[in-house]
Amino acid sequence: DTHAHLDDDAFAADRDAAIAAAAGAGVAAIVNIGYRPRRWQTTLDLARRHSSVRYALGIHPGHADEFDDASLQLLAELV
After folding, report:
1. Nearest to 44 by CA among 8, 3, 2, 7
2. Helix count (H) and strand count (E) of the chain?
3. pLDDT by residue (tens digit) across 24-78?
4. Facing residues of 55 across strands?
5. Measured in whole angstroms, how far is the alpha carbon of residue 61 from the centre of its chain?
6. How far apart (Å, rounded) are the C-alpha atoms in residues 63 and 67?
7. Which helix (H) or strand (E) holds 33?
8. DSSP character for 54?
């Protein structure tokens, strides 16, 4: 899966089951997107807990107002 947001609160109750179901259906890897600063750490945490989860971090244009020097510094440290 090339685009997921499994760290979203909507998956809080069944996140692990959703990842297991994907694996059972033949999905070898899932790319979770950290699309804004407050999602970067949750995305990384998810990837650390599940070997099938990869990640991409950045800022979606819809959240460009969240970009500043501090977020750029944090992003550089995380990647």
Report:
1. 7
2. 3, 2
3. 999 999 999 999 999 999 999 999 999 999 999 999 999 999 999 999 999 999 9
4. 32
5. 16
6. 8
7. strand 30-34
8. E
